[in-house]
Design brief:
By secondary structure, the chain is α/β, with parallel strands linked by helices. A hairpin with an 8-residue loop joins strand 19 and strand 20.
Length: 825
């Protein structure tokens, strides 16, 4: 701790401790003293800041002990010669504020005393202050808000995809705080803990002669954990017993753990205690730590270069530091005979390794420097306000009041300035410095020295997306990782094509990898759920990416489309040849048999049936979709009604030759025409209802086939479509029944047998069409429909007309009137 004093007459910048005792110096701490001295001298030499006022300071060492800490506090608020708190008697300097490096288990004791007297407390290295109740009226933190560090740790873990970590706290209080405040945030970001414990619980066991409790447990958990990343949360002081623990582990010949990535919070930077230079540092090779942001201060390096015992007055630490840092002893040192190297006092601090004494300013020294300037600016503002108030009081003829230390608070809360490095210094509403953190990568060497390299930062002034930044190329990893970025996961990552499935009874970071269901993909590692491709894409075989579907329809360019089109045209050409053949033999008996006009009509309708199949080939559009179903159903219905008329003609012709028959008057064109028209009109009415209520339209079917988008016609109303087919089936069955009854009627050329067979073929084709139509997908649906049209039409054509063509072409002797008369009964 350091108290700041202000005197109007003399320079009080002595550096000493009122309580002289043997100290175990952390060498970096001496830079903290020099940073304070450097700041005070700059302020005292400034003509603009605190003119006619001299700032000084005293340094107190609490020794990590509650008794000595309380004693030092009493000295702060007492006179020089008596330990009497708040006793104002005698000559004394004015206590301005206290700058302290808090110890978490002594924090409340310090705050409670200084809080009573409203003495400003400016803290640095507040790694664990947030777990204590602070007094917002008197406490100011020169370290940034720890939430930035917490977020930085999470962002660092996420950046390197470290999800399975170990957490070690400097105290049980910090560990409990983490479980209550931060555990949920780690879980939300997918980070789990392989082990969580406090190394601060290690204590001295008098019976066993050392720090034995929990050492075996901690060592075993660190070495056996699968986590390659270990987070250590603490401050300046816990790093020392922690370093001792690591060294003790090695001295006990405990099997050395494989390389780990150590993540240290601010204040836990690696430090060497002078008389423990032999402590091994290789475990920390590649460690990453967070440090309070610092920047080069103009003149500070030169200030350190000039520092040596002969040129320094009032520095009570420099000889002790010099002795331990350079491994020498001064001739006039107390303690008897002089042995070893003699200190000349002219040794150069720049010759010391960085891990012994860094020449570049550290984060804590930077905080101390800013803290001194913050107090100076606040005091300057208070003095300026007092001068203004004096003038006002004098004008009002009132007695001026002396300002006391607590009146510094409003000025300290609102202080804002740019330091000599050009960076802004100000507090937020919680009296915390608005600043960031540097991310340091520690590189160790075989001689147990180490150096920190800045590889990233957390900058609260930057945009949110740039708040965290890190340069991976500058990071040196532990040699065990062969300079490859280490992984730290509970199990191997789920590769693309798989999804995570939580293991029962295990943390969320421990999971099984399950293949994605068919049609789903995962294109990244460790996805919780697979997702389906867009409708116009499909999953590849490995289920890691989506491939665009191809647009398809039954086209004339495809093999199936070409084959069906050739079949339709071939049958159409056959029908044309038959028509020509029948016209050529127009007056022959076989052409004239069973109503010659119905024969020509049926041939034309069969020609249209074959040509109708061509409407189903090619890219669908609104016109073809309307014509496909309606033309097909009406033409086929008319063909069936024509066959029915021919069948009925055969039946009525036989009945008409019976004696005293009255049916003869029914035979003629009117009957056949009425049958054809009436049956066709019924189907036409159904089709008209279909077109007017729910017409077919072109659509893109993206779901029927996995890899294709099918362009097709949507029936809009499948019910009406099957009604149309049902009506055609009814007519075919009625015609089949009539023909079956008339198949044995005596006649020279009885078409009833052919009609029976043709209707049997027709019904068989369309009965098999229904299940095929319902079970097929894509272009196969259209192909099935075309095949049914061609097959049923070809069946009618072959059954009804091939026998006649055979007689006309190869048996002309049967196509004579005498033959017909001879066969009649």
């Amino acid at each position: 701790m350091a108290d700041f004093q202000v005197t109007r007459s003399a320079l009080c910048s002595s550096l000493f401790s009122r309580r002289r005792k043997k100290r175990c110096i952390i060498t970096e701490n001496y830079q903290h003293v020099l940073a304070m001295d450097f700041a005070v001298k700059e302020i005292n030499q400034s003509p603009n800041l605190l003119p006619n006022v001299t700032m000084g300071f005293n340094i107190y060492d609490g020794g990590w002990n509650a008794r000595w800490t309380n004693y030092a506090i009493m000295e702060f608020i007492s006179s020089w010669d008596k330990i009497v708190p708040n006793y104002k008697c005698g000559i004394q300097d004015t206590l301005l504020a206290v700058i302290e490096n808090p110890i978490f288990y002594l924090l409340n004791e310090v705050q409670n005393v200084f809080g009573i007297f409203k003495i400003p407390q400016v803290m640095y290295s507040t790694a664990s202050v947030e777990i204590k109740d602070t007094n917002p009226f008197s406490v100011y933190q020169m370290d940034p808000n720890r939430n930035y560090q917490h977020r930085g740790i999470i962002q660092l873990l996420q950046h390197f995809k470290w999800k399975w970590i170990g957490f070690f706290a400097a105290s049980d209080e910090i560990l409990e705080w983490l479980r209550k405040k931060m555990l949920a945030e780690f879980s939300i970001n997918g980070i789990c803990f392989a082990v969580m414990l406090s190394f601060g619980s290690v204590h001295y066991d008098a019976h066993k002669g050392g720090y034995m409790k929990n050492i075996a447990e901690i060592s075993e958990k660190i070495m056996n954990t699968k986590a390659n990343v270990l987070v250590f949360y603490g401050g300046t002081f816990p790093i020392i017993p922690f370093r001792w623990w690591l060294n003790d582990k090695l001295n006990r010949a405990v099997p050395k753990s494989k390389g780990k990535v150590w993540i240290l919070t601010a204040g836990m930077e690696l430090k060497n205690i002078i008389y423990k230079k032999s402590w091994d540092t290789q475990d920390f090779h590649g460690a990453i730590s967070f440090a309070v942001h610092s920047n080069d201060l103009p003149g500070f390096h030169q200030f350190l270069q000039k520092r040596n015992p002969p040129s320094t007055y009032g520095d009570g630490f420099i000889k002790e530091f010099w002795t331990q840092a350079f491994g020498c002893i001064f001739q006039n040192s107390p303690g008897g005979d002089v042995s070893g190297d003699i200190c000349t006092g002219e040794e150069n601090l720049e010759n010391l390794p960085e891990h012994i004494f860094p020449m570049s300013i550290t984060g804590q020294s930077y905080s101390i420097y800013n803290a001194v300037y913050a107090l100076a600016h606040a005091l300057h503002a208070m003095f300026s306000s007092r001068y203004r108030n004096k003038a006002k009081v004098k004008a009002d003829r009132k007695e001026p009041q002396n300002q006391v230390v607590w009146q510094l608070h409003p000025f300290l809360e609102s202080v804002s300035f740019n330091n000599s490095a050009g960076e802004k210094v100000c507090f937020n509403q919680n009296a915390e410095l608005i600043g960031g953190f540097d991310i340091i990568n520690w590189v160790t060497f075989p001689n147990n020295s180490f150096v920190g390299v800045k590889v990233g930062k957390i900058d609260p002034w930057a945009p949110p997306e740039e708040e965290f930044s890190i340069n991976e190329d500058d990071i040196v990893w532990h040699s065990w990782f062969n300079q490859v970025q280490p992984h730290s996961v509970c199990n191997a990552n789920c590769q693309p094509g798989y999804r995570m499935e939580k293991k029962e009874g295990e943390p969320p970071c421990c999971y099984d990898c399950i293949p994605c269901p068919k049609g789903f993909i995962s294109d990244k590692e460790d996805l919780v759920d697979c997702f389906k491709c867009p409708d116009n894409q499909y999953a590849d075989m490995d289920q890691i990416s989506c491939i665009p579907k191809t647009i398809t329809f039954l086209s004339y360019q495809g093999p199936m489309g070409i084959s069906l089109a050739i079949c339709a045209l071939s049958f159409s050409f056959t029908v044309v040849l038959m028509i020509i053949l029948f016209v050529k033999h127009h007056n022959t008996p076989i052409v004239k048999a069973n109503n010659r006009k119905l024969t020509y009509t049926l041939l034309i309708l069969l020609l249209l049936c074959f040509l109708c199949a061509l409407l189903f080939i090619g890219q669908p559009n609104e016109i073809t979709c309307l014509l496909r179903r309606t033309a097909f159903s009406i033409i086929f219905t008319m063909a069936l009604s024509t066959i029915m008329a021919k069948t009925l003609t055969v039946v009525l012709a036989f009945m008409a030759i019976q004696p005293r028959s009255k049916i003869k008057k029914w035979i003629g064109k009117k009957l056949t025409n009425s049958i054809v028209l009436s049956c066709t009109m019924i189907q036409a009415g159904i089709c008209f209802l279909w077109v007017t209520t729910s017409p077919a339209f072109p659509e893109t079917d993206m779901h029927s086939l996995t890899k294709e988008i099918v362009l097709q016609c949507h029936e809009s109303s499948p019910t009406i479509f099957f009604v149309v087919l049902g009506y055609m089936g009814f007519m075919a069955f009625a015609t089949f029944s009539l023909a079956f009854l008339a198949r044995r009627l005596p006649d020279t050329f009885n078409e009833a047998k052919c009609i029976t067979f043709s209707m049997l073929l027709f019904c068989s084709v369309w009965m098999s069409f229904v299940p095929s139509y319902l079970s097929t997908k894509g272009t196969s649906v259209t192909a099935v429909e075309i095949f049914s049209i061609l097959a049923s039409s070809a069946g009618l054509l072959g059954s009804l007309f091939f026998p006649k063509c055979y007689i006309i072409l190869w048996k002309p002797e049967l196509n004579k009137k005498e033959f017909f008369l001879r066969r009649k009964h």
